[in-house]
TrEMBL record:
Belongs to the UbiH/COQ6 family. Pathway: Cofactor biosynthesis; ubiquinone biosynthesis. Residues 13-335 form the FAD-binding domain. InterPro entries: FAD-bd (IPR002938), FAD/NAD-bd_sf (IPR036188), UbiH/COQ6 (IPR010971), UbiH/COQ6_monooxygenase (IPR051205). This is Ubiquinone biosynthesis hydroxylase UbiH. GO terms for biological process: ubiquinone biosynthetic process. NCBIfam families: Ubi-OHases. Keywords: FAD, Flavoprotein, Monooxygenase, Oxidoreductase, Ubiquinone. Gene3D superfamilies: FAD/NAD(P)-binding domain. Its cofactor is FAD. It holds the Pfam family FAD_binding_3. It comes from Thiosulfatimonas sediminis.
Amino acid sequence: MATQADIYQQVWDVVVVGGGMVGAAAALGLAKNGFSVLVLEQQAPNMDWNRQTPVGIRVSALTRASENILRNLNVWSFIVQNRHHPFRSMHVWDAFSSAEVTFNAAEIGEANLGYIIENDLIQSALWQGFAREPNLAVSLGSKIIDLQLPNADDAIAKLSLDNDKTLQARLVIAADGGRSQIRQLANIGLNRQDYDQCAVVGIVKTELPHQDTCWQRYTENGPFAYLSMGNNYSSIAWYLPIEKQQWALSLSDAEFAQALGKASDYRLGQVVEVGQRGAFPLIRQHSNHYVKHGLALIGDAAHTIHPQAGQGVNLGLLDAAALVDVLSAAKQANRDFSTLACLRKYERWRRGDNALVQRSMEWFAWFYQDNALKNGVRQGVLPIVNHFKPGKNWLMEQALNGREALPSLAQLYAI
């Protein structure tokens, strides 16, 4: 692995800006395919994990495709030996009608419908993998102040840092989140919608067992979900109007527990223990472009969606895996992987799928709004969905395994 002095002396194949889950997956996948990779991040994640590590409040519901990506990157075993929580069914109902739907993994011959895993653990597992890749290095703490993309006179991208140093790369990957500085420096615009909602998240213990089931109820304020974790613990996702965010965070633990019980219609009984909680605003945004010559956006830097179905991280990991496929194919054919023509293959692959999922989540939220017409439609349609096994099984297959055109890393044992 390169020393800190060395990182400024060479031209990297790829510099990944952002070492979160998506950026780390892209970096690790590219390093395994022979690229020299430098990851820029402000600070390293907690690397000292065990089963007693305090539970984080931000979790993801990983699909089978995401599980395969982590398996193929050789980091899944680290997650399993620490904490992972398979959920075997999902139960959805609302406060405005008697309609309910239950999805059960056994109905499609699967052991589970996915896993609830802490974001911090996923990131730590990927960083554990960095140490096994001699052509991957990490630089911590430096801030980017300017970006120069390749042009007719210079085929190398340059990142100017606040320590008066410059990094050089054939390709820059922006994995620096929804407020991506790299996207802004590259003058890539985006379409943005503010939902005027927030998500209140945390870890709680309920009176009744969750039965390895994710429970989601639609209320007058928005969805409320229990995401099953160990024992009787669940991660909560409570969607509220943005003006109620401070109210929810300012409640005492006893008041908060009472409010959660009411929001869930006491489906798991009383909330008997409340841990740390937090909240974040909900927005949808989609970059006008994912690529320029010498630049690719992945994950939240390219798109953010309503989190109610937990698809954000899954989409980001598919971005990373698709980009690894496109760049690796170009490298194997001795073609320049930084060109716009090459990178547009990645954009065409992922942008349409991401837009479709964004719109699907918005339609789903619209369908569950409280008004007489929609309440009546749900009352009539959902029992049909619940009892029409071919349709319900297709929905589960799509949610778990995704579309057929999966990147290599998202298929089982690609490496």
